Amino acid sequence: MFTGIVAAVGKISSVRGLEGGHDGGVRLDIDAGGLALTDVRPGDSIAINGACMTVVAKTDTSFSVDVSRESLNCTVGLDMRAEVNLEKALTLSERLGGHLVSGHVDGVGLVLQFEAVGESWKLVIEVPYELAKYLAFKGSIAVNGVSLTVNGVEDVGAGAQRRCRFSINLIPHTIAMTTLKNLSAGSKVNLEVDAIARYVERMLALSNTGA
């Protein structure tokens, strides 16, 4: 589990195909940036742009993970050299500054708007419509592994053209400490909905069926 509070911005320094080539997945070598690795061992979990990955090797300043083809198909930003948000798995002694994040990406969103508004930044993202039911005003969502608060939700269109958009206000600290500053209209981002919303959905579904 994670908190969605990014500990450091690292960089994917190399992308190598696993056995069978890139169709079989890739191994990423990641420069850890300011992320301390003294307590990290092979087998530990680190969230990379919101996707939980297992460390397979490490040095004092870098680590490596293997990313399966399935994970590549469900995420963005894990198949190229680029900056990435990093967070080690939390311990029970840590403060939960964001919200509980599992590191399991639920879908890929499309940035529609990213612009300065006063001292803050407005971020508007369109999500796959199947995730719309998990979004609520003042609810939580992880965007590229960053715990954020939803400021507004809008459902547009009808039928097969239905779309859902949500907006977020980003404070200067979040911009400075994460890779979200690199976003622009047309960027794609990893999304993870709040786990609490999933439990509510399950309870309501069973209630409606009389189970």
Give a structural overview.
- With 211 residues, the protein is mainly β.
- It has 3 helices and 13 strands.
- It starts with 7 loop residues before the first strand and ends with a helix.
- 13% of the residues lie in helices and 44% in strands.
Average pLDDT score: 94
Q: Please state how the strands of the largest beta sheet are arranged side by side.
A: 10-9-13-7-8-12-11
Q: What is the N-to-C succession of helices and strands?
A: EEEEEHEEEEEEEHEH
Summed up, the helix count is 3
Q: What percentage of amino acids are in beta strands?
A: 35-45%
List the uncertain runs.
Answer: none
The biggest sheet, with number of strands, parallel, antiparallel or mixed sense and barrel status, is:
7 strands, antiparallel
Query: Rg, please?
Result: 18 Å
Broad shape = globular
Structural class: mainly beta
| Number of separate strands | 13
Q: Helix fraction?
A: 10-25%
End-to-end gap:
30 Å
